[in-house]
Specification:
By secondary structure, the protein is α/β, with parallel strands linked by helices. It has a single domain, classed as Leucine-rich repeat, LRR (right-handed beta-alpha superhelix), CATH 3.80.10. The protein contains 2 helices and 12 strands, in the order αβββββββββββαβ. The strands form 3 sheets. It has a 7-stranded mixed β-sheet with strand order 1-2-3-7-9-11-12, with helices on one face. A 3-stranded parallel β-sheet has the order 4-8-10, covered by helices on one side. It is globular. This is Leucine-rich repeat protein.
Length: 153
């Protein structure tokens, strides 16, 4: 590898580290929403809409489909096993919980009235989504054939 390519890789790594530091210091995921990650549990608190996120795609596979490499959420690549979205959150953004390989369960409040695109894509270990009976989240789980159970208060 020549010196020019080495310098480019170093620059890219520095930018990546800078972005991680910025995300680490800024724990918001919406105008009035905050996130916290502790002991494998990601908790979303506040009120209003969650930001939409994007998938980052790589080369095409043998069938011509583009492979997703990762998502641009601030908690991407952390070891998340459980997600708790608290009352007051009204929407879950696109790709918000996609590609969390260790994610096993999610708790969604009845205040959620919108769930974005590809929210749970690639989260193959997801066992259960806890929802309120009669909620938008329940209807979403039914229409997308996702495992759900009623949450207890």
């Amino acid at each position: 590898m020549d010196i020019r390519k080495s310098k480019m890789w170093i620059l890219l790594l520095l930018v990546a580290v800078l972005l991680m530091l910025i995300y680490g210091m800024k724990s918001s995921c919406g105008e009035n929403l905050k996130w916290n990650l502790k002991d494998g549990t990601l908790t979303i608190t506040g009120s209003g809409r969650m930001n939409d996120y994007k998938g980052i795609f790589g080369d095409r596979d043998a069938d011509g489909n583009r492979r997703m490499l990762c998502v641009d959420t601030p908690w991407e690549d952390h070891k998340i096993s459980r997600i708790v979205v608290e009352d007051g959150v009204t929407s879950i953004g696109n790709y918000a919980f996609a590609f969390c390989p260790g994610l096993r369960e999610i708790v969604l409040p009845d205040t959620v009235t919108s769930i974005g695109d590809s929210v749970f894509d690639g989260s193959e270990s997801l066992e259960m989504i806890y929802v309120a009976e009669g909620s938008y989240a329940e209807a979403y789980c039914i229409s997308n054939q996702l495992p759900y159970a009623y949450r207890t208060v």
